[in-house]
């Protein structure tokens, strides 16, 4: 017989679990139902769970509606019909034909609501998604009852120019590398953000989400930093809540948004980071449900 190679596939389970591959760690899996809607840029992928008042969930860049996997069930348990959407070019949604803007992303809200036969819904967005929620409320006031801005991005011109010179250049130059080191690069970045508060399996999910989109890698943040939320936030006429957490890297921007809209409800969860829906899913769902139930 030939000696086994170092990567004998029959030993893969043993290497992973130390128990002959029979002990498989159970992971929390979203039981949301999935579907597609026709939109202005092609097909839009969405998933939903629960019954009750509809709440559209818009993810941060460069992720997907799977960002909310750990809060679909908590929201459903609180009487909310949670509808997560892959924005154009992310996940399984078709990309735009041109470099997208936040207004382009906002077009998916009425398209998905039409497909589901929903006249009006509440809209929650996280980071880039918060900008899309803001714009959807302005463009489609008859379709959006209220908004929750989970991590708004109210920045000044100096911050905007700093991003163009640093973060945008990194995203423009990001590329695949031999040996897959580009996967490692993203994993290390997301692991640093999580700082030990998120399981490694979930961080792997983040990397898969970031690379599953059909749009260019830099599209999402490019749209975000072009958007003038400091100006657009004042135009929202619906009730709103600013939801943040003190450990978020853009927590100061939530405080700036609060200064612009002191009439909005404001909730700041303690600690956490950019992955607050995974770090504090129950507290996050409580904050969301508490606001919506009070309308």
UniProtKB/TrEMBL annotation:
Transmembrane segments: none annotated. It comes from the Bacteria. Residues 1-24 have a biased composition (Basic and acidic residues). Residues 1-43 are annotated as: Disordered. Residues 25-34 have a biased composition (Basic residues). Residues 54-171 form the AB hydrolase-1 domain. Pfam families: Abhydrolase_1. GO terms for molecular function: hydrolase activity. Coiled coil: none annotated. InterPro entries: AB_hydrolase_1, AB_hydrolase_fold, AB_hydrolase_sf, Epox_hydrolase-like. Keywords: Hydrolase. The keyword Hydrolase applies. The keyword Disulfide bond does not apply. Gene3D superfamilies: alpha/beta hydrolase (3.40.50.1820). This is Alpha/beta hydrolase.
